[in-house]
Amino acid sequence: MKKMLPWMITTLLAISLIAVVAVFLYNSLLGSPDKAGSEGKVVAATVKPLSAKDRLAVTLELKEIKRNLKDNEKLVIISFAFQMDKKATKTELDQIKDIAVKPIINRILADTTAQQLEGSAGQDALEAKLLNEINKILPKGKLVKVSITDYLLTDI
């Protein structure tokens, strides 16, 4: 029995350690959705259904932005519609669209290849990047939806 005691203690300690690690991993990886994994993810804002008149009141359009992509052989001509949470935010964004919003769009497109824009998944990723970057510069209110209204990708 004396020879078995160290083995039993070692086995119990190993099982206890495994249990503690399992509980920790369970809480950190599969814990509440509010806490775990919220950093670095795109949080989609819920867009309330609006009437056409209300939607126009909170939507700003940027038409025909022309930019060559990262692979300098491609040119994109793209237009966007930005839906804000309230009319005051639209007014604010309208005032700074040329000095703040267009440079953000140019910077993102400059780092984007034609392959990254392929398909709806690529365009959704571009919309999500723009949503996150433009929301960072808004002092009040927030941008709730970015839509690509026109899109043309061509060779130079």
Report what the structure shows.
With 156 residues, this protein is an alpha+beta fold. It folds into two domains: 1-31; 52-155, 2-Layer Sandwich (Tetrahydropterin Synthase, Chain A), CATH 3.30.479. The chain has four helices and three strands. The protein has helices at 5-30, 52-57, 87-110, 119-137; strands at residues 59-68, 74-84, 143-155. A three-stranded antiparallel sheet has the order 1-2-3. Helix 3 crosses helix 4 (119-137). The chain is elongated and about 85 Å long. The relative contact order is 0.15. The model is unreliable at 35-40 (pLDDT under 50).
Quick structural overview:
This protein is an alpha+beta fold and 156 residues long. 48% of the residues lie in helices and 22% in strands.
Could you list some keywords that capture this structure?
48% helix, Tetrahydropterin Synthase, Chain A, single chain, alpha+beta, 156 residues
Which helices and strands, and how do they pair?
Layout: H1 5-30, H2 52-57, E1 59-68, E2 74-84, H3 87-110, H4 119-137, E3 143-155
Antiparallel strand pairs: 1-2, 2-3
